[in-house]
Request: fold
Amino acid sequence: MTDCGCDKARADLEEYLRNEICRTEQGDIREHLDNCPSCQDEALVARTLTDAVQRACKEAAPEDVRSKVLASIRAAQATH
Ligand SMILES: [Zn+2]
Reply:
């Protein structure tokens, strides 16, 4: 794979989804996602994970929920 900025985009992805990074970085990541299908997949996973953890964290330990959700997403992707 060429160095298209994937490492940087993925490192910042969860913060990006929680709107915790600065405006300039958000623009960079959004632009990268627009042009990079593999990072779009990763963003979808991370967004689903972030949403699920936020919804579920009242009921269970966040790390526990997080690992279960991530496992189920990965399993769903593996069947494609
Ligand atoms: Zn990428």
Remarks:
- The chain is about 80% helix and 0% strand.
- The chain has a mean pLDDT of 85.
